[in-house]
């Protein structure tokens, strides 16, 4: 095996040294090695890809659809996405120049931030949140500004937003992820409209990661792009709503002038998404079968949530209502203190249930656990039994 020439280590991107350890995948990897473990760790739907989408991918392969697609994605998929955005959220995007298909929403995050962030630029990020936003901002030489929302039930209030904007008047962008990973909390239409009003008075670009938009259990998801479309980049995809995580199909939608550099950077990174995967996603976004499959999954997730949340509350965990996604962000009972890493480690090793420490998600996450219910009801019921036994034996 080759050994890196030691002097070369001085040539690495110095921003790597600024990265905070994330630990989610590492924690999951270690917990996976424990015999008999029940994993409530990753945001990985346990459903299979619906048949209509699988058939579309197979047909694409059999039809030799194996050449370079346009950088922004197949026009078939972009038209399907435009239809999806109009049908679900009342948003109008031109599929020719206002939508780009990405290799998952993850690549969309990188492409969007790369088009905006110069060294030293500040990016406002509500926390607790998906750690990739802070990591990508840091790698690009930007400065993440964490807005801790834990004292406001994990919702960014317009008053707090105006305060942060006043403190950071030169911030380049703000990232809003709702429904939220890790909290499951989302915003009402009125709350989003109030945030939009505050942002409209600024030159902030909003990166709205709405990958869980189809998984709202009470009410309806409202995109902030409805109110301030001229300064919003919407990220979404097929991973969560269609259980297509392995197909890696996401998208970015926004005004043409913003999308031009975003699409260019996306194309430089990956050229284009894979044709068969795009054919499958097009069916998911535009067909009635795809819509019904999502509704069936959502109903199952809601049933799991409604089983898990009251059981955890009964055991002394505090939980802010998770009205979206498939996560519960549970505050440790007071007697366990705030060392969520210690608690999660012991729960995995002794209780044989794996969850993710809340401190991995930034400011406001210490003393919490992220618990995913994207797994079977049988596993959830057994996990509740094991967690109950673990906390009662302490």
Summarize the structure.
The chain has helices at 24-32, 51-62, 75-89, 104-116, 132-139, 158-167, 189-200, 256-270, 275-286, 288-314, 340-351, 377-393, and strands spanning 38-39, 99-102, 122-127, 143-148, 173-177, 205-209, 232-237, 250-253, 318-319, 327-331, 353-354, 356-357, 368-372. The protein has 394 residues and is α/β, with parallel strands linked by helices. It has a seven-stranded mixed β-sheet with strand order 2-8-7-6-5-3-4, with helices on both faces. It has a four-stranded antiparallel β-sheet with strand order 9-10-13-12.
The biggest beta sheet reads: 7 strands, mixed
Please tell me what the overall shape is: globular
Number of domains: 2
CATH architecture of the largest domain: 3-Layer(aba) Sandwich
Strand content: 5-15%
Number of strands: 13
Give the overall average pLDDT.
Answer: 96
Q: How are helices and strands ordered from N to C?
A: HEHHEHEHEHEHEEEHHHEEHEEEH
- Biggest β-sheet: strands ordered side by side in the sheet: 2-8-7-6-5-3-4
User: From the helix content, strand content and strand pairing, which structural class follows?
Assistant: alpha/beta
What's the gyration radius in Å? 21 Å
In CATH terms, the superfamily of the largest domain is Type I PLP-dependent aspartate aminotransferase-like (Major domain)
Distance between the termini: 46 Å
């Amino acid at each position: 095996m080759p050994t890196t020439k030691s002097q070369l280590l001085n040539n690495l991107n110095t921003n790597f040294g600024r990265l905070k350890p994330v630990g989610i995948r590492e924690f999951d990897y270690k917990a996976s090695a424990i015999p008999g473990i029940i994993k409530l760790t990753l945001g990985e739907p346990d459903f299979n890809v619906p048949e209509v989408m699988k058939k579309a991918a197979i047909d694409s392969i059999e039809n030799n659809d194996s050449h370079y697609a346009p950088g922004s994605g197949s026009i078939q998929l972009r038209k399907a996405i435009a239809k999806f955005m109009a049908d679900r959220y009342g948003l109008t995007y031109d599929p020719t120049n206002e939508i780009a298909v990405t290799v998952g929403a993850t690549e969309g995050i990188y492409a969007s931030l790369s088009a905006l962030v110069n060294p030293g630029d500040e990016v406002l990020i509500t926390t607790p949140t998906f750690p990739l936003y802070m990591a990508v901002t840091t790698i690009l030489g930007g400065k993440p500004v964490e807005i801790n929302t834990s004292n406001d039930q994990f919702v960014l209030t317009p008053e707090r937003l105006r305060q942060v904007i006043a403190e950071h008047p030169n911030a380049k962008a703000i990232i809003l992820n709702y429904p939220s990973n890790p909290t499951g909390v989302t915003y009402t239409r009125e709350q989003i409209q109030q945030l939009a009003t505050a942002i409209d008075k600024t030159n902030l670009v909003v990166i709205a990661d709405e990958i869980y938009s189809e998984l709202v259990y009470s009410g309806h998801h409202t995109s902030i792009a409805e109110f301030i479309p001229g300064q919003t980049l919407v990220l979404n995809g097929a991973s969560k709503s269609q259980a297509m995580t392995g197909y890696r199909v996401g998208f970015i939608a926004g005004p043409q002038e913003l999308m031009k550099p975003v699409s260019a950077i996306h194309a430089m990174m990956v050229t284009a998404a894979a044709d068969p995967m795009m054919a499958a996603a097009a069916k998911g976004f535009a067909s009635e079968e795809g819509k019904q499959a999502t509704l069936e999954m959502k109903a199952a997730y809601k049933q799991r949530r409604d089983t898990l949340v009251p059981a955890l509350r009964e055991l002394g965990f505090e939980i802010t209502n998770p009205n979206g996604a498939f996560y519960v962000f549970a505050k440790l009972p007071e007697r366990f203190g705030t060392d969520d890493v210690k608690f999660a480690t012991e729960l995995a090793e002794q209780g044989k249930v794996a969850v993710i420490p809340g401190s991995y998600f930034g400011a406001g996450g210490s003393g919490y656990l992220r618990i995913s219910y994207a797994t079977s009801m049988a596993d959830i019921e057994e996990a509740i039994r094991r967690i109950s036994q673990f906390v009662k034996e302490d």
